[in-house]
Amino acid sequence: MSYGIKSPARYVQGSGELANLGRNVKRMGEKFLVLCSANNKKRVGDAIEESLKSVEKDVVFCLFNGECSKAEISRVMDVVTENGCDVIIGVGGGKVIDTAKAVATNLGGYPIVIIPTVASNDSPCSGVAVIYNDEGVVIKALMMKRNPDLVLVDTDVIAKSPRRLLVAGMGDALATWFEARACKNSGAKTMARGQCSNTALMMSRLCYDILIRDGAKALEALEAKASNDALDNVVEACIYLSGVGFESGGLAAAHAINDGFAYVPQAHGMYHGEKVAFGTLTQLVLEHAPEDEKNEVLSFMKQVGLPMTLADLGITEVKEEEIRKVAEAACVPTQSTKNLRKDITPDEVYAAIMEADQIGRAFKA
Ligand SMILES: [Zn+2]
Fold first, then answer.
1. How far is the CA of 172 from the centre of ligand 1 (A)?
2. Ligand 1 centre and the CA of 121: distance in Å?
3. Rounded to the nearest whole angstrom, what is the distance from the C-alpha of residue 165 to the centroid of ligand 1?
4. What is the distance in A from the centroid of ligand 1 to the CA of 276?
5. Is the pTM value of this prediction over 0.85?
6. Total structural domains in the chain?
7. By CB atoms within 10 Å of each CB, which of 77, 170, 232, 276 scores lowest?
8. In this structure, how many other beta carbons lie within 10 angstroms of the beta carbon of residue 104?
9. φ, ψ for residue 32 (rounded to 5)?
10. CA 183 – CA 338 distance, rounded (Å)
């Protein structure tokens, strides 16, 4: 056995935490580049600037162009060097965060701070950035020199985020335990360059338990636009436990099947976590999971409104050749389905997707 565990150097989460940004980054540098969308600048720009100014730091805002592409990364790198910034802050969702990570890495490892404004996926704590081409197709996963120096989450900001995005985050986090467990059983290597440690496995399990216990209650906080204890727990599960859990615990079929759905145009409007949730259900079918376990997952999905069928993923017209493509893409050697079992075939994955759809439809009815 050899274990590897990766995590951000520091993780801070709480109500009103943005006000403490300055205190947390005081020793990182002097001039901060803040990468965010125009909308997030309006939402949290003043709070960020105020907090940094309170510890006498300079702030340069840079508005994100919408795609984490090579062109956008080099444009932001130029803004950093032209302005003499020495710390990068990425504020927003997955693509802004990944662009900020890529900029920091490509500049030779600048200090990097991540401030997620939504809890929609497990990217903030990880040391991976997903790069797209200008058409929005994934071209590679860039490994960072090190994981973020600080991930700071203000739960008041998350409480005001759209419901569908938090549900997607829960979908991404739902996979963490099952994928880590599969890697523990098979001895697969993780992105932290080791096998799944007991620590990562325990974190993944805690992530799952929190979702089952508090998932629905956390959504009430979003209705009220004010954080509650359940939201605190779910945010920790979606951003921290799921992030460290996937990177150090490992991925398996759920994420590979999500990637495969890129081949189905009807599913293009779906979020990562929504597809990962359906991928989780498919993985449970592949594993011949006990009925109780499948039912617990299905009830959770139904309760929070995660997609349980192909139709829920926007695939109202099911074409066999498209679903076979999903299965084939999930089984290429670079994909993580093999972490479940080395000899798994596209035919098995195809049949499991169709069975998951059938089980989901039956459960809903
Ligand atoms: Zn994910």
1. 5
2. 6
3. 13
4. 7
5. yes
6. 2
7. 77
8. 29
9. -105, 125
10. 10
